[in-house]
Amino acid sequence: MRATGSPRHPATSRIIPGKRRAVLLIAILTASIAMPALAASNPRDDVRSMIEHALAVVRNKEMSLAAKRREFKDLAERHFDLAGMARDSLGAHWADLTAEEEMKFRDAFDSIVSDTYLGQVRDYDRREVQIASQELTGGNAEVYGSMLGGNEETVDLKFKLRILEGKWKINDYSFNADNAMRNYRDDFRRAIENGGFDGLMDRLKALQADIDTDLEGRHTVARSSSKSD
Predict the structure, then answer these.
(1) H-helix segments, the chain
(2) How many CA atoms lie within 13 A of 18 on its CB side?
(3) pLDDT tens per residue, range 47-106
(4) What is the mean pLDDT of residues 182-207?
(5) Is residue 63 part of a domain?
(6) Residue 191, domain member (yes or no)
(7) How far apart are CA 214 and CA 220, in angstroms?
(8) Count: domains in the chain
(9) 220 assigned to some structural domain
(10) Angle at 26 between CA 20 and CA 29, to 5 degrees
């Protein structure tokens, strides 16, 4: 006879609480891992540090233009979500690219992003950047600030970031109303719709040539000015 009051399924009564404890433990561990990942750094501090580094490079009169471009390439690789920006810049057309085309586009796109940013920072290098505020929404952030341009005009800054592998990465930015990703999307869409992938790469080559000319010209002027001083 079964003893009165003994559980009908004693093994089950012991296993179920154990499962619940295991599920609870997993949930706690998952939360403890995810929360530091999101809080690993402060996007506002990251943006300020990145811009201060960029300004220091721009103002270094001893560095060659090639060295400055290498510094900005490294800066972009560390602080920008270049892979995500490349995909976003082509929108739905990204899915049409082959693996080889993706690689060719990425190589050209990454250089354009870093060199364009170098040129833009050189336009606004008179004073330190002022980072005013930030807005956090889960794994996304927006950082707002300002700089004083060469003509004493205040330039509004806005950076959009997303968390990737525990680090904040810039995926878009604006100098006043000049939005980087909007410009890329509009420009690249026209190029690829009018000339396919070859037309897109021709457009990137033309952009890079214009950037090269602009950077070389301004570097020459800056060196001449420093020698006269």
Answers:
(1) 10-38, 43-59, 65-79, 82-90, 99-123, 180-228
(2) 5
(3) 999 998 998 999 898 899 999 999 999 999 999 999 999 999 999 999 999 999 999 999
(4) 97
(5) yes
(6) yes
(7) 10
(8) 1
(9) yes
(10) 140
